[in-house]
UniProtKB/TrEMBL annotation:
Domain (DUF2268) ranges: 64-255
Domain of life according to the entry: Bacteria
Protein name, per record: Uncharacterized protein YjaZ
UniProt-listed InterPro entries: DUF2268
């Protein structure tokens, strides 16, 4: 399935995002366009139509839709991954956290679809890093028996760790997210023991879930992401352990393989 030409959607109804999200209803189950919009903006999609026309024009000039499709086809062959619809929308250029942690780009992955939030200034390598990260999520989700709605905090931090390790492996360490360098091994070991281990089984509805995953409030920033990346890298230091093997292991097995107590 090709990358959908959401640039045409944006030109038609982009300044009315609820109308735009009506086009996405067939790809979701039992949700309204307003609920879809609310969900997408939480993950980096543009909120305001102010300046949108110029952003879309520049994105089209940069051939972002065409470049994403080329990268996607390479990844699909590399990982023998599923052929899924990909939706590209402008990122929220006013989102401070998105700017600081992700250089104003973002994504949202499901087993059966993928959303990318980009801006005209993103280079091909930056796009490759984002697509590698997000499409790795899709492949991981496809290999797991557990339903997405049943994923725990541990499942999600491992998911993020695998995806960012894929970026380092296939795109290059210089394109890794900033949070991969925030903490020392000693700090990460302490974070696991103090913050993640007691709450590893909580789900997205738990009040601490987002705080621990993103390091909100008084928690170390990007806490869950950084710990997940550390778990995966500790596993890869083991003999006969490959990235491909880790992709099919449960989160609990990966934590144990990383020599982290899960009891």
């Amino acid at each position: 399935m090709p990358v959908l030409r959401t640039d045409e959607w944006l030109i038609q109804v982009g300044e009315k995002p609820i109308e735009l999200c009506k086009k996405l209803i067939p790809y979701f189950k039992d949700v309204s366009s307003r609920e879809i919009f609310s969900h997408l903006i939480r993950h980096g999609m543009y909120r305001s139509a102010n300046g949108l026309k110029q952003v879309v024009k520049e994105m089209k000039t940069q051939l972002i839709w065409e470049d994403v499709e080329k990268i996607y086809n390479i990844l699909m062959k590399r990982w023998n991954g599923p052929d899924i619809p990909i939706f590209i929308f402008p990122a929220d250029w006013r989102n401070g956290r998105l700017q600081r942690e992700f250089n104003s780009k973002g994504g949202l992955a499901y087993r059966d679809k993928l959303f990318l939030f980009l801006l005209p200034h993103h280079t091909k390598k930056e796009m490759e890093a984002l697509i590698t990260h997000e499409y790795n999520h899709v492949c991981r989700l496809r290999r797991m028996v557990k339903k997405e709605e049943d994923y725990t905090l541990l499942d999600v931090i491992v998911l993020e760790g695998l995806a960012e390790t894929a970026v380092r492996k296939y795109v290059g360490q210089s394109y890794n997210a900033k949070w991969t360098t925030y903490y020392s091994e000693k700090q990460l070991a302490e974070f696991w023991k103090r913050y993640i281990l007691p709450y590893q089984s909580i789900h997205v509805t738990h009040p601490l879930y987002n705080r621990l995953l993103y390091g909100l409030n008084f928690y170390p920033k990007m806490l869950g992401y950084a710990v997940g990346y550390d778990l995966v890298n500790r596993c890869l230091q083991k003999k006969d352990i490959t990235f491909e093997k880790l992709m099919s292991l449960t989160s609990e097995k990966i934590a144990k393989l990383a020599d982290r107590d899960v009891s």
